[in-house]
Amino acid sequence: MKIFVCIKQVPGVSEVKIDPETNTLVREGIPSIINPMDKNGIELALELKEKYGAETIGISMGPPQAEEALREALAMGLDETYLLTDRAFAGADTLATSHTLSLAIKKLLENYGERDNYLVICGTQAIDGDTAQVGPEVAEELGIPQITYVQKFEIRDDKVIVERAFRGEEVVIIETKLPVLVSVLRDLNEPRYPTLDGIVDSYEKEVKYLNHEDIEAVKKNIGLVGSQTEVWRIFVPKRKGEHIILEGSIEERVSELCQKLKEDKLI
Amino acid sequence: MEFSLTKRQKMIRKITREFSEEYIAPVAEESDQTSQLDPKVFEIMKKMKYFGTCIPKEYGGAGLQDDTISFCIVTEEIGRIDASWSITTGVHCSVCAYPIYIYGTDDQKDRFLVDLATGEKLGAFALTEANAGSDAGGVQLTAVKDGDEYILNGSKIFATNGGIAETLLVVTTTGQKGRRKELTIFIVDTNTPGYSVGVREDKLGVRASNTSELVFQDVRVPEENILGKVGQGFRLGMQILDYGRILMAAQCVGLGQACLEASIKYANERVQFGQKIGRFQGIQWKIADMATAVESSRLLTYKAAYKCDIGEDYGHAGAMAKLVASESAMQAAHDAVQIHGGYGLMKAYDVERYFRDAKMAEIYEGTSEIQRYVIANHLLRKGF
Amino acid sequence: MSIIIDTEECTGCGACVDNCPFGGMEIKDNVACITGECTLCGACVDVCPVEVITIEKEEFKIPKMDLSKFKGVMVIGEQFRNEIQSVVYQLLGKGRDLADKLGVDVSVVLLGSELDDKLKELGEYGADEVIYVKSPILKDYYSDLYVNTLTEIIQERKPEIVLIGATPTGRDFAPRLSKRLYAGCTADCTGLDIEEDSGNLLQTRPTFGGNIMATIRTPTSRPQMSTVRPGIFEPIENIKKKPKITIIEKKLDEEDSVTKILKIIDKEKIAINLEEAEVIVSGGRGVGNKENFKIIEDLAEALGGEVGGSRVTVELEWIEQDRQVGQTGKTVSPKLYIACGISGAIQHLVGMETSDIIVAINKDPNAPIFDVAHYGIVDDLHKVVPALTEEIKKRKSKN
Question: Which domains does chain B have, with CATH numbers?
Answer without folding.
Answer: 7-117 (1.10.540.10), 123-231 (2.40.110.10), 235-382 (1.20.140.10)
